[in-house]
Amino acid sequence: MSARNLSGRTATPRKRRTTRWQAAFPLHWDADELLSRREMVRWTVMASGALFAVTAGIVGLDYIQKSNTSTVRKAIIRASDIPVGGVHYFQYPTAEDQAILLHLANGSFAAYSGKCTHLSCAIYYHEERKKLLCPCHEGVFDPQTGDAIAGPPQRALPRIEIQQDGAMLYAVEEHPQ
Amino acid sequence: MSDLEYNLSETTADTDRTPPAGRSAMLMAGLAIGILLLGLQLWLLTLALELYLSGQTTNTWQLVLISGLVFLGGLLLLRLLSHQPHVTTT
User: CB burial class (10 A; 0-12, 13-18, 19+) of residue A100?
Assistant: First the structure.
């Protein structure tokens, strides 16, 4: 079958013939803006900038939080008000952060952040088991060191530095372990 | 489909445009490296988030530095590309 185009001349085969799928699914290259490699590179760089901005934002947020709360000295309780083996719950470094103070059997005091290092549930001291427990997923922490000893938590509880000034106990600083 | 239909197809005329030999491979390699670096940045972001949530943020500025360097490299590449004309051979 001889093929003729609109001008009436016989169609000559092109050097690089259009494939069947290209004819079946025509693409308007001139109207296209997203498929060129140049545009792809531009979008990639924009995505890169967004990822950089979010990473910097997270670090910046942490810096701001630390600068606001790093050296807050806060009175907790009188040392005589917490018996050996006793526990006292308080808020540190802000009113939204639960913390826990323990009077250990050896007479010393230890304080930890009250947020589980697994998914931030509130932990409590189980007096019968003599362990710090997280009720959400049964995480267990050692009251002597704050180390995670059972359950899903992998990290130790952040330790809160305690100072005794006269009869009063003060929380000074929180240290991640 | 006949040859007539192929030649009347005005929408596929530009499919023949190809960059010079070797250029296409370089562009594709550049894109592949760029996407890999994007994956690296995503990993750095998840790492920064994990360290932030765990409170261990003493060295997280290094993650920001690496991510920023990758982004600067991308900007540099974009600047280089903007100085090169589009290659279209039809």
Answer: buried
